[in-house]
Each structure stands twice: as structure tokens, then as C-alpha cells.
Design brief:
Layout lengths: L1 H23 L5 H10 L1 H12 L7 E14 L2 E12 L5 E11 L5 E3 L10
Antiparallel strand pairs: 1-2, 2-3, 3-4
């Protein structure tokens, strides 16, 4: 019985900290995510698009970013979106992507890598 109470207490504290973290880390808007993708196209999203299309040596041209949906992954904003791009004179092709975001100290959106580990008890 004591063990169950300790676990419940620990779980409740974790849930409170997740809620507090979510309150501090607001979800980005669709426009903010689309603008960030456009800004980072040459160095991040474009090469990723090319790798996913099995054409890593080519540079895709961004056409649009649509269907942006954001929610929390634990306490971190995670957004899924559709990117449409094309290679040279080919027809545009869509790709679904997902990324996690955070905010810089000056309030700018940035892509983040989230690493979680389990605490030993």
C-alpha cells in the first residue's frame, strides 16, 4: 500500500510539472511554423525533403507549407505539416513532416530536439 501511494504521489507531481511546462511553452501558430520553415528551407527542411525523396544531392524548391497542426508532445510543442516542393522542372510533390519547437529567449521560434530519459527509482 505504501509503495502504491508513493507512485501515485510521484505521478501526480509529474503531471503538475507537465502542466506548468505547457503553460510556459505556448503552441506556435500555423503562420509562425510556415514562416520558420521558409526561413530554414535551404539549411534544414529542403535537405530533409530531398533525403525523404531519396534525392539527397538535389535541391528542392519550396512551393507551399499547409495543414499545420500543433499540439504538445509531453510539454514540448510538436507540429505536423505538409510541405510541397519540386525538383528542377518536375511537378510539385507533397511530403508530410513533423518537428518539435521551442522559443528562444527573445521570443523567436526554433526547432528543438527533445531527449527524455527515465529516472531510476
Amino acid at each position: 500500500m505504501v509503495l502504491a501511494l508513493l507512485c501515485f504521489s510521484g505521478c501526480a507531481n509529474h503531471a503538475i510539472s507537465v502542466e506548468q511546462a505547457r503553460a510556459e511553452e505556448r503552441l506556435p501558430t500555423s503562420d509562425e511554423v510556415a514562416a520558420y520553415i521558409r526561413l530554414q528551407w535551404e539549411t534544414d527542411y529542403g535537405p530533409r525533403f530531398a533525403r525523404f525523396a531519396s534525392r539527397p544531392s538535389q535541391k528542392p524548391v519550396l512551393v507551399s507549407v499547409t495543414n499545420v497542426r500543433c499540439d504538445y508532445y509531453i510539454a514540448t510543442p510538436e507540429c505536423s505539416f505538409e510541405v510541397v516542393a519540386h525538383f528542377l522542372n518536375e511537378l510539385p510533390q507533397p511530403q508530410n513532416m513533423v518537428d518539435r519547437y521551442g522559443w528562444t529567449d527573445d521570443g523567436k521560434l526554433e526547432s528543438v530536439i527533445v531527449m527524455y530519459h527515465q529516472r531510476r527509482r
